[in-house]
């Protein structure tokens, strides 16, 4: 396989410009060869005809031809020949007998070389011929007397050697001009190529093409909307994510080369152009969508050449943050377990310092027994180790909050065929349990609009979790004895961002809804006879080792 040649930008530009110059010069040479150079011969022919016509009008010629006197004619034509730098002037009568000739011995002899026939009939003519003085270009003009009778012919001749020499001289002049133009063009091409390469930061065409493709791919893969404008405030660049967000805000159609102020005046990129100061994480509303926008000026050689804005849906960022913080579910479980373990260690250390060894032994035995009992109950009912560990952490956290978290006696969760299902179940159960704990904690209205819990209404704060598995389906129930959810809010609590706890909340139940939808299940709130709330989730569930019919 032949190795592909990589030409530098300078070479490429120089070759291209030189090729253009060469083509232009070639066209000019063809034009000169076919138009300019033939004009040299035409000019010499016109000179011969003009001289012959001038001489033919002289009275001296008509008188000499009428009287047969050749001396006056010979003297006059000799003078004309010397002053006009031509080869010869010959005057002949109607019988082609010469009345003048550069060689006086030829006077009185017939004209040699032919070509005078048309002139003897009264017509001017131009022709080449070979006579006693060699090859020449000749102009024949009739001579008339005062009454209009033709008396003879004047012949003015130019040496063909001189004609050809002048034509070649003009050809070489044209060639010299074209060669000079080629050299100047090549020099200009080199300088231009060097300047272009400096403007391209020394990159080669292949590098520029690759960089452009990489930048385009990068712009389209970014999850943030990007809009760039020039110094006039016209949009010069917009990526696909920006198109999507603008379309979601109700802005459609082509926006490139349009004024940014016509589409998004609140962005105020004109202020960035004027002041040169950027803005970070500015919250703006566009068509009902809350966006976080950052804008910066674009500088080229220290001068502001435009501005660029990046933006993203604020709600999507909050959801992403909540999803990323989903790991906190596991972290909370570990933290609660570690905190409870540290409390027990502090008790053990205190009893050791006080020398209460018998009581310490009983405490350790009781703690171990309770722990084993708790672990045993969970592992008997929850067969997935990830969910089991998660629930142990939730039990510890509930105890810390003074809440009793109970697993229903008939609760059973087999290990799933697909481990990813457990992560979605943890999102569902974790957010429902956290929501219930917050409602029972009496910290104010919860995400789903619960009022403050009246501590006097119940002797204890309880949450019950139950998993009911029947082939191919799993039912998850989370119940609490809190104040419940007003009927008017039950359709709103799953909306993204709906919360009565302030800003940056209202994500938990929204994520529950998304996980349920992802598992293609159903979610609803049961109607309780007394206080409290029960969430019921019904999802498809394939148990490991079992075949779903």
Task: Please give a structural write-up.
Helix content is 48%, strand content 20%. It has a five-stranded antiparallel sheet. It is of the alpha+beta class and 549 residues long. Helix 14 (419-440) links the parallel strand 10 and strand 11. The longest helix has 48 residues, at 9-56. Helix 12 crosses helix 13. The radius of gyration is 54 Å and the shape is rod-shaped. The chain contains 15 helices and 14 strands. The chain starts with 8 loop residues before the first helix and ends in an 8-residue tail after the last strand.
What keywords describe this structure?
5-stranded mixed β-sheet, 48% helix, 5-stranded antiparallel β-sheet, 549 residues, alpha+beta
H/E series, N to C? HHHEHEEEHHEEHHHEEEHHHHEHEEHEE
Structural class: alpha+beta
Shape annotation: rod-shaped
Q: Reading side by side through the largest sheet, how are the strands ordered?
A: 6-5-9-8-7
What would you report as the Rg, rounded to the nearest angstrom? 54 Å
Helix content: 40-55%
Our measurement of the CA-to-CA distance between the termini, rounded to an integer number of angstroms, reads 59 Å
Number of strands: 14
Sheet with the most strands, sense and barrel status: 5 strands, antiparallel
Q: Any low-confidence stretches, pLDDT <50, length ≥5?
A: 1-6, 442-458
Number of helices: 15
- Beta content comes to 15-25%
Average pLDDT confidence is: 76
């Amino acid at each position: 396989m032949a190795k592909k040649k990589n030409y530098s930008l300078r070479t490429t530009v120089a070759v291209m410009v030189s090729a253009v110059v060469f083509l232009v010069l070639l066209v000019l040479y063809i034009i000169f060869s076919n138009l300019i150079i033939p004009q040299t011969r035409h000019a010499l022919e016109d000179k011969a005809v003009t001289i012959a016509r001038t001489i033919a009008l002289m009275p001296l010629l008509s008188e000499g031809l009428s009287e047969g006197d050749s001396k006056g004619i010979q003297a006059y034509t000799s003078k004309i020949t010397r002053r006009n730098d031509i080869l010869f002037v010959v005057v002949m009568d109607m019988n082609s007998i010469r009345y003048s000739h550069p060689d006086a011995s030829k006077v009185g002899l017939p004209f040699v070389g032919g070509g005078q026939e048309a002139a003897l009939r009264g017509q001017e003519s131009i022709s080449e011929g070979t006579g006693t003085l060699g090859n020449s270009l000749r102009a024949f003009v009739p001579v008339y007397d005062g009454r209009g009778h033709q008396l003879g012919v004047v012949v003015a001749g130019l040496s063909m050697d001189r004609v050809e020499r002048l034509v070649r001289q003009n050809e070489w002049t044209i060639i010299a001009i074209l060669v000079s133009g080629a050299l100047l063009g090549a020099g200009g091409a080199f300088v231009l190529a060097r300047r272009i390469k400096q403007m391209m930061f020394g990159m080669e065409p292949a590098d520029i093409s690759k960089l452009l493709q990489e930048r385009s791919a990068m712009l389209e893969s970014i999850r943030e909307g990007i809009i760039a404008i020039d110094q006039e405030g016209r949009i010069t660049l917009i990526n696909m994510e920006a198109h999507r967000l603008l379309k979601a805000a109700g802005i459609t159609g082509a926006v490139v080369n349009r004024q940014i102020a016509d589409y998004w005046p609140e962005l105020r990129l004109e202020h960035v152009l004027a002041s040169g100061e950027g803005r970070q994480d500015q919250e703006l509303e566009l068509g009902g969508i809350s966006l976080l926008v950052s804008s910066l000026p674009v500088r080229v050689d220290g001068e502001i050449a435009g501005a660029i804005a990046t933006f993203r849906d604020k709600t999507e960022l909050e959801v992403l943050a909540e999803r990323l913080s989903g790991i906190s579910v596991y972290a909370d479980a570990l933290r609660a377990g570690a905190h409870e373990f540290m409390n027990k260690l502090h008790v053990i250390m205190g009893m050791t310092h006080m020398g209460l060894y018998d009581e310490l032994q009983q405490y350790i035995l009781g703690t171990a027994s309770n722990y084993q009992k708790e672990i045993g109950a969970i592992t008997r009912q929850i067969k997935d180790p990830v969910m089991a560990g998660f629930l142990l952490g939730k039990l510890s956290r509930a105890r810390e909050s003074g809440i009793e978290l109970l697993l229903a006696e008939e609760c059973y969760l087999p290990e799933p065929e697909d481990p990813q299902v457990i992560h979605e179940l943890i999102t569902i159960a974790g957010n429902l349990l956290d929501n219930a704990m917050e409602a029972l904690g009496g910290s104010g209205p919860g995400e789903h609009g619960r009022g403050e819990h009246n501590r006097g209404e119940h002797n204890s704060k309880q949450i019950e979790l139950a998993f009911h598995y029947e082939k191919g389906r799993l039912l998850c129930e989370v119940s609490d004895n809190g104040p419940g959810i007003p009927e008017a809010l039950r359709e709103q609590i799953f909306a993204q961002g709906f919360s009565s706890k302030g800003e940056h909340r209202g994500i938990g139940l929204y994520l529950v809804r998304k996980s349920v939808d992802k598992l293609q299940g159903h979610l609803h709130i049961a109607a309780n006879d007394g206080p409290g709330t029960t969430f019921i989730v019904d999802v498809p569930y394939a148990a490991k080792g079992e075949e779903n019919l």
